[in-house]
């Protein structure tokens, strides 16, 4: 029974497409090897799969470079010189771009301005002014974030203070309290390894000193959290 004719179109299923590529590639390489042996031909095949893998067949008696040299000689062209010229042109463009960028940097630093016209100076001034606006906006945003962070720390310190007083039932005891420094809780709160430490102070009543016989007031510090 004769096989049905296969419609030549792209295989949608990726697995089937890869299997078909592998089988037909091996078939081409087999035919190329037969041509090399039977006809003493020089055959070279270069293939790239859809996944980017390179497969190559080259007759054993010749290298890939020699095959390219023969190709150029037969057609009377020079692929290497053409490629070299393209590389040189690309290098020239990159050098020119580098010189322009360096000149722009010097101009933004206040140098290389002598050859600029009034219009070019005006454009440069506008560019720098726009850049300054962006920098100012970023600076103000950074300051705003720092202020918000400070407020959150202060709020957390106040919450910790209230919770400590409630936990120790010291809310109505006039002998305990936190040092008031104009409402600045940072004066009584320190941070160790990222964790806050809060101190409560107990004011001792004035009593005679055992050594001097004179009255004094003592302050005892309790490390409540650490």
TrEMBL record:
Which GO biological process annotations does it have?
A: positive regulation of transcription by RNA polymerase II
Q: Which UniProt keywords apply?
A: DNA-binding, Nucleus, Transcription, Transcription regulation
Q: What InterPro entries does the database record attribute to this sequence?
A: MADS-box/MEF2_TF, MEF2-like_N, TF_Kbox, TF_MADSbox, TF_MADSbox_sf
Which molecular-function annotations from GO does this UniProt entry contain? DNA-binding transcription factor activity; protein dimerization activity; RNA polymerase II transcription regulatory region sequence-specific DNA binding
What GO cellular-component annotations does this UniProt entry give? nucleus
| Domain named MADS-box: residues | 1-61
Q: From the Swiss-Prot or TrEMBL record, state where the protein is found.
A: Nucleus
Q: Which PROSITE patterns match?
A: K_BOX, MADS_BOX_1, MADS_BOX_2
Tell me where in this chain the K-box domain is found. Answer: 84-174
**Which PANTHER family does the protein's record reference?**
SERUM RESPONSE FACTOR HOMOLOG
Supply the name of the protein.
Answer: Floral homeotic protein DEFICIENS isoform 1
